[in-house]
Amino acid sequence: MQHAMPTASPDFDFGQPPFDLLTDDQRTALAGALDIALYPRDAVLLSREEPTDAMFVVLRGTVQERRGGEVAAVHGPGDRFGLQALYGAAGAGAGGSTARRFVAAEECACHLIPRPALEALAAENSEFGAAIVGDFAQRMRDLAALRSNREMAALTMARIRQAYLHPPLFVDAAASLRDAAEAMRQNRASSVLVRGADGSVGGAVGILTGTDLRDLVVLDGRPVSEPVGPLARYGLLTLDRDDLLFNALVLMTKHAVRRVVVTEKGAIAGLLGQSDLLAVLSNHSQVIGLQVEHATDPADLRRASRSIVELIRTLHATGVKVSFIADLVTELNRRIFRKLFELLAPPDLLANSCLIVMGSEGRGEQLLKTDQDNGLILRDGFDCPDLADIAADFSRHLVEFGYPPCPGNIMVSNPDWTRPLAGYKDALFNWVHRPDEAAQMNLAIFYDAAPVAGDATLLAEAKDYLLSRLQDNQMFFTQFARPALSFDTPSGLFATLFERRRAEAVDIKKAGIFPIVHGVRALALEKHRAETNTVERIQVLAELGALDRKMAADLVEAFTILSTIRLKARVDLPDDEPEGEGEELAIDNLVHPDRLGKLDRDQFKDCLALVKSFKELIAHHFRLNH
């Protein structure tokens, strides 16, 4: 920063937002703390190389915000800048490579608001503090956009072995067209490989597809008894299993074919179809979905479930948004739970019960395999003699699939969570009208429940009963909302955490994610809303006027960013912290700020600042400080 001589400050324009939110006493305090600095044309007011100890508010003239060699924005009288630089984020691009500078486009003057004065006002006036955070959501989007090349780079590194390969199906050259068609039908295949061909092609392996059969028999009128050897196509396109998927895509496109033969150590390992290739280049959720659909026993489901970890890695590596990953993982998990229950439960149990998932799974926000949170609602009067064994098997298999047992025993194997609808209604009545700590936790968990298998109307009736029992009881909602403030968010409005304690790990769930989830949940329950997903709840609350639209947009953005950082912290483990032999991503909510890149660190700080403001809003709304 090119230093300018501070002078006595002329009258500050308190009519400009957000300074119009200050009280008279606060305005007096700010006026006493202000400095003014004068800058000649082309002077650098702020750059990423030098920190600052004040926020800038343009008094006169214009200031250009330059990123690299381009002008990204122009700030005129009343505009403010330097907030990120004030807290250690002065202007990084992706990986810190794109410098950001603020340069005087003409002779200009700026008010300088010192950090201590700004923080004192923000702490004293929460509305002003929230406004100072300023266009939070847009700033986060701008920072995230700097990752623009990451998706394509990761995409081009995907390997064929990440795709589903169709097992090779061989027939002899002497086999008839009918034999080939029957082999395809029995194996649900769309092609056969032909080996031992006649002298015209030597001993090469050829291919005959379902389309070839149609053309040969239906269009050309060849008899189905004709041998396939002379009719197969030879000179197959082959790639090794460790070749790039991108190479397979180029090869298919160049030769206008829909499949290539994949080899491993010289032997044919299978066929890669165009649809399977494209599935992996976007994600390989379709492959897992097919594995679940065709599962005939829990062992098949276990293999499909273990594939979800690699799916998470692939989607994350290709830059897919965390909300999309959560949607896919939620759908796949629910398919696995549903299929497992269908494999274990007799038809009458399926028809007279509703399997539910709760917690992050119920909200559709699960990214990693967290503790089981599930239950079973039975139709009143229905009895299943083997229910205890079925429930125990269900929980046991999920543990084998990589879903740890719930420490609070909120699982179908616990009779308290596998009971008739009337039993759930009794429990809900007690949770609402006798709200001790355990009751409030159970109520919060159940409020997030979603149906997975069986008769979904059973859960709908239980949810309707819950909402009908809620009363406009301030004490109840105050107690229900209180856990949102249970954990410390290690940040003032502008966290200096990263400057003082960079080596200390932060529990991102307790510090950032849970306060948003539970605070929003409390507001939604107060409005008797049936939505379960946190983002959907925020959007509905904004529509109802229960949340300021600006705060709602910021919360959605912060929730997304925190979830992304949480996932990244587990997927991108440092070299000195291996995951061991397990196939699962470790369940660990600790984030080490010193291990984050500059972009993530800047976003993390801003998110924690917003969470702090939201917790103050929740405390005020539910009178938690009284």
From TrEMBL:
Superkingdom of this protein's organism: Bacteria
Alphabetized InterPro entries for the sequence: CBS_dom, CBS_dom_sf, cNMP-bd_dom, cNMP-bd_dom_sf, Diverse_CBS-Domain, DUF294_put_nucleoTrafse_sb-bd, GlnD_Uridyltrans_N, RmlC-like_jellyroll
Organism: Azospirillum palustre
Protein name: Cyclic nucleotide-binding protein
Coiled-coil residue spans: none
Source organism phylogeny: Bacteria, Pseudomonadati, Pseudomonadota, Alphaproteobacteria, Rhodospirillales
Keyword Transferase: no
Domain Cyclic nucleotide-binding intervals: 18-139
Cross-referenced Pfam families: CBS, cNMP_binding, DUF294, DUF294_C
GO molecular function: [protein-PII] uridylyltransferase activity
Domain CBS, residue spans: 164-224, 231-287
